Amino acid sequence: MSSHSTSDGHPGPPRGRRYDRTPLVVTWEVTQACALACDHCRADATPDRDPNELTTGEGIDLFEQVADFGDRPPMLVLSGGDPLERPDLFELLEGARDTGLVPSVTPATTPSLDRETLAALADAGVGRVAVSLDGATAERHDAFRGETGTFDTALEAASAASELGLSIQVNTTVTARTAADLPEIADLVEELGAVMWEVFFLIPVGRGAELEQLSPPEAANVAAWLAERSREAPYRIITVEAPFFRRVSNERRRARGEEPATVGTTGAGNGFVFVSATGEVYPSGFMPTSAGNVREESLVSIYRDSPLMQRLRDRTAFDGPCGACPAAETCGGSRSRAFAATGEPTGSDPLCPWVATDHGFDADEIDPDWVGRLA
């Protein structure tokens, strides 16, 4: 789960689950209101709530729709903005619990995220809390997040959550500016006792359009570094909007004479779905193309039957190099990044090194040590 709307990196479909029928993750952006002004913010979050947000009753109805997917409903993530800006958050959590769901929450690292609030989240039956670390020091993280003190708040919140028995996840955004901090952040994730590190490769939308992305070969190097780190890390490492991580990881394994591993198979509209604060249903939070609205139609039917969702699940229909790629089924490219770059959800992912490198990318060019040399 993730405040950046996780759309890849999760395990392959659990036995008996078909992603054309049931997503693994449903993320509801309960509000776009947030006190922070993070550099990468997809939502262009503002201090004020949208008066057209789903009401408490509509939110609980949404939970019932999630439960309607069947005996094995998706994981539910409440994101934002900052979910703590919803005064009815705990009423919503009670409603989720009453429908048999175990929600996760991705709060912003503001002073509201104190021990008392975390204790209340634990008492409300929250399954996991995510905090963000985008720099390895207070200076670098706080500059990225746009607010002094957010680094310390994140560390204190993670420590308190762990003491309260809450499962912790750390989310990190990778840009040209933050890549050098990855080794130290990885160490912090271990020190905090997190069970998962979710590494999000920037999609240039919202305020994030102003940030410098990695080049495609650099992205491959980061993916390789993550693959190597995952071999020893006591927590799980997943990527978001970097499905080429699977290909890079398998190239590394083959070079060692190991069998390829299942790194993850979900994607926008294919195992993942995003519901906006106003009920619009998007394949991901980074692809603001609506497939319907839960105020007018069931999330189940939108996810299963909308032409947009069905199109995204047909990887043979992708355009350009992504459509012809031999790794289409195991990768498929970031649909959100393709949309941001081309305006077409079925376009090619410009960050994929095999797509974007004119001379033809070779696995021998991958250098996981590149990350360490940045420091």
Automatic annotation (TrEMBL):
It comes from the Archaea. SMART domains: Elp3. Its cofactor is [4Fe-4S] cluster. The keyword Iron-sulfur applies. It holds the Pfam family Radical_SAM. Residues 1-20 are annotated as: Disordered. Keywords: 4Fe-4S, Iron, Iron-sulfur, Metal-binding, S-adenosyl-L-methionine. The keyword S-adenosyl-L-methionine applies. This is Radical SAM domain heme biosynthesis protein. It comes from Natrarchaeobaculum sulfurireducens.
